[in-house]
Amino acid sequence: MDKKIRNFSAWAYWSLHLASVELDDPIPGEHEGRDRLDEWLIRVRERLTKLLGDQQSHVPLDAEFGEPIDCGEYTRSRVVYDTEPAMSVPAYLLVPKDRATQGPAVLAVHGHGPGKDLICGLTGAPFEHYAIHLARLGYVVLAPDLRCFGERQDPQWEPWTHKYDCDWNLVAATMAGVSPLSQNLWDLQRSIDALAEHPLVDSSRIGVAGLSYGGTMALFLAALDTRVRAAVVSGYVSSWKSAHTVPWNMCGSQVMFGQLGKIEHVDIAALIAPRALLVETGEADELFPLLAATQTMDSLRRVWGSANSDVLVHAAVVGGHRWHGAMVEEFLGRNL
Questions:
Q1: 3-state secondary structure (DSSP) of residue 166
Q2: What pLDDT does 151 receive?
Q3: Predicted local confidence at residue 9, as pLDDT
């Protein structure tokens, strides 16, 4: 029985596996030239498209708006729009009162928790209300519920009171041959459609912002949809390889089938270039460590090139896994 180390824990097994995975097609080195880098970016986009799978067919948004609620500096309306024949998305629309003409807008994506209610100030602490922060900066803001959150959370029946909806959803999606990540990205792309149709929104000046799970979606959405002119990704960009140090499970709504060795955080982020990307990392963030984030950002500077200080920004901030937003006003003001 002492011949070899035996692991009985699934998480221990996958943690060891994560730590040992190397990319089949890593980002070219600095000495390899711009042509090799551009060829690599084409391959990355092809891999991402394949990993995400087939997209849905467009359906009319058929948006329905509730009565605006006066929130002081802005109004908040509940809006519901369709993304699939049998799927609708509930969201809050925040409109600054001093907006009279077309201008920039931001899609605000929540992380784990109560969904859009948290970032729009209906619950939680003020530092979590980043949709409000953006509205107060003068942006029209759309904050939808992702699948399994807020109004889209499934009922919790006994004995499954403590089940984790993201992972339950992954099981159901796996049986259907689809990816929850891909489904949510589809909903968010249609959310951009909804924003772009608003009379006060300049469709060429749309950004996306999110924390944690919302940061995942903001990064992927900006990589996938070139209508996103600027992305704020808080508490996410690091690497999947570094996730072996995290003592919790990896959310089932943030992964793709067969992704290990095929694509990394740096690959996804690279597809945003030359558009604007702000990455915010808490120095004490245990989920997405600063060292991994710094290494990824150092690699990304090769993609953006030498003139990247205004459009590629890494804000390392004091604190842990939370929204800080210290550089958001300046960054979005410059890039939206």
A1: helix
A2: 95
A3: 67
Which residues, in sequence order, are bridge partners of residue 313? 278
Q: Is 46 exposed, middle or buried (0-12, 13-18, 19+ CB in 10 A)?
A: exposed
Angle at alpha carbon of residue 74, lines to 207 and 310, rounded to 5°: 30
φ/ψ bin of 109: left (φ > 0), alpha (ψ from -120 to 50), beta (otherwise): beta
pLDDT tens figures, 266-302:
999 999 999 999 999 999 998 899 999 999 999 999 9
| Residue in 290, 309, 287 with CA at minimum distance from that of residue 211 | 287
Q: For residue 159, is the peptide bond before it cis, meaning its omega torsion is within 30 degrees of 0?
A: yes
pTM: 0.93
Kindly report whether the peptide bond that precedes residue 68 is cis, defined as omega within 30 degrees of 0.
Answer: no
Superfamily of domain 10-335: Alpha/Beta hydrolase fold, catalytic domain (3.40.50.1820)
Q: CB neighbours of 183 closer than 8 A, spacing ≥ 6? A: 147, 173
